[in-house]
Amino acid sequence: MSDTLLKVRDLKIGATVYPPGEKPRDIEIVHGVSFDLAPGKVLGLIGESGAGKSTIGLASMAYGRGGVKITGGEVWVNGRDILKSKLGDIRRLRGGEVTYVSQSAAASFNPAKKIMDQVVEAAVEQKKFSRKEAEARARALFAKLGLPDPDNIGDRYPHQVSGGQLQRCMTALALCPEPDLVVFDEPTTALDVTTQIDVLMAIKEAIRDTGVAALYITHDLAVVAQVSDDIMVLKMGNTVEYGPVDQIINNPQEEYTQALVSVRSIEHEEKSPTEEPVLSVRNITARYKGTQFDVLHNVNVDLYPGQTLAVVGESGSGKSTLARVITGLLPPREGEIEFAGRVLSPDLKGRTREDLRELQMIYQMADVAMNPRQTVGTIIGRPLEFYFGLRGAEKRKRIIELLDEIELGEKFIDRYPAELSGGQKQRVCIARALAAKPKMIICDEVTSALDPLVADGILQLLLELQKIEDVAYLFITHDLATVRAISDNIAVMYQGKVQRYGGKSQVLSPPFDDYTDLLLNSVPEMRLGWLEEVIANRKMESAGN
Amino acid sequence: MSPIVKLLAQRIALSLLLLLLISAVIFAGTIVLPGDVAQSILGQSATPEALANLRAELGVNDPPVERYFSWLFGAIQGDLGTALTSGQDIAEALSNRFWNTLFLAFWAAVVAVPLAIFLGLLAVRYKDRWPDKLISAVTLASISIPEFLIGYVLMYFIAVKLRWFPSVAMINDSMSLLDKLSAIALPVAVLTLVVLAHMMRMTRAAILNVMQSAYIETAELKGLNAFQVIFRHAFPNAIAPIVNVVMLNLAYLVVGVVVIEVVFVYPGMGQYLVDHVSKRDVPVVQACGLIFAAVYIGLNMIADIVAILSNPRLRHPK
Fold it and tell me: What is the pTM of this model?
């Protein structure tokens, strides 16, 4: 075996794009990237969406997703240039020498087949092991990856295990054929923070114990710092910086890398409770129709005018349900919502237009929250018409004011959502909410789908707007870094209850309850050795979602 | 009760209820049809007294609701009444013809269903290349031409010119299976051409839909070849829509063969039905209608049940 397992030289990747109303054209998405990976080493590929990191990862298996084509360069695996190999040889490479772990194991497992059948398939198909040997290997891997009941979990179907467990099964699937290289494509991004560190640790140990090499693709520098030997920072298909992990984290040379390392630089002074709260959630207990158990138990929180209350918790903690109760989509079983000095009707149908105007909402997925056939001007203009009856020049003037506030400007007024980037779409959604001149906006995971630098811009904008418009935010998120950045008050939710509630400094200072401690410690930190430290100091197991 | 048993019980109960409603519709429909059975038995020259006597004898003067229920209870016990024109027991006369129709439909299905699914898989494998386009073009052409025309064209070339198979599909109990198959070869070919396109296109669409899934990419990255990916990973997830369209077509094979049976003079239910419609023999029309409805509902119920059973989330709850 040569001392380089994977050698990539001047890799160029192109795709055909189909812009609306124009002729299809070819674009280049990766512009000549080169790197080396020695056996047993881990290279982290990091960058924002569109940086080409997944595309490069899949190119190491000679695979192009959708219309993506590898247009130039060389990819050497075990001394062969796989871009020049025949299809049959490439098939032996895939699933045998190089395997793949995707971001969403839930989507990447075939729902119609048992986990075991899928985990051993590549190993058996590539004639690396007999079915029996492969199953024994799989069970050993299940145990190594910390899955419950490793002898029998393979008999289950994918929907019968949790997301975190499935992600570990996917890792077992990739390791089962004893590959030389595993491509991990954002393997922990879709998981809760507390689950993420378990899976991360399992992956790290599996890499160490099996001596396999890995390409670890992620947008989260703090995560990649825990598992990699080298890091390559990518931007728009170009290499920005490439070097040992220590250098990238502690001594970044390029401006872009420095920005990634120091992201979340927002400083926000905590405001103390003023006069009367704008929103009071009183003893709310709620359950979904047709179910037998409560998803919210006796929830009490207050939100003060012009301030931000962050509701933080993992998936299933009830934070989104709380938003549904406040907006009237889910009438509670007990308790009431007091808003701007009056008690709101529990049901959406009973609310006045004024109630609706003063309580606006911004969603996680900006692109599905807008009508793709309407222009930005129409989208923002709609609440102006509906609540204030603005028409013609008056309406246009106000739309332009709002576009200026969200730092987009008049030129965006005739654009369609498809022509905007993710961050710009979310800005339009913010403008639409502001157009109603609300007293309060519910922000439901508004930055979760965005890249860190873009998310940072959105948070800064929200804070700016809060100063100008004196609007209150109920900020629902699972991301504690976001919470630190913008909140005045924090409610930590766990299994439908408010576990911890108070001012930011108070909630985020010790002594902690075990759950808050777990949650706070699970947020990846950008220093080497953090992962081992956290695992060693844990007081409580994660929920294992 | 496990959710799957409950779902299946619901499906079956709904099907039975639907069949009951259909029976009422069939009965009501045949009552409002114009025409007088007594007139068609006795001819234009019959005296009014003779007509009245015959009507009383046939029981057509009784209140409709009473007649419906006595007919319904009879039908449940397998007694479909007697044909007004010939005095034959309908159940007896039909049973032979029903089996003949099923025989024809069965062999048409044996040829058409695997062929349609195979062609669908082939079209997916060679998507947008010439095999896909050729399969689409041929099957679309065959579904667009009226079936009786295909029937006569095949009859002319294969039976008359080439003399491979007989042009008339007469079968009887004394024939061997091979002779019977040779006799029905042409109607089977026509029926296959008629139902092929629908099933093949649905198979293609259902599998292509599944091919967009992330787990197909996983399978490709395991180094499986295209047929393994399609057959092992895509097909099991496309079963429900495919079974649905297959069942609709099977129902068509049983119910819709009327024209084909007439063209090929095949002794099936379709021909029997057409004969008796022209004679205004209401009990026979009702009986045929009821049987056709039962076949249709039954096959669709099977499709629903297969769809439920093919869903692993229902078979293996958490």
Answer: 0.76
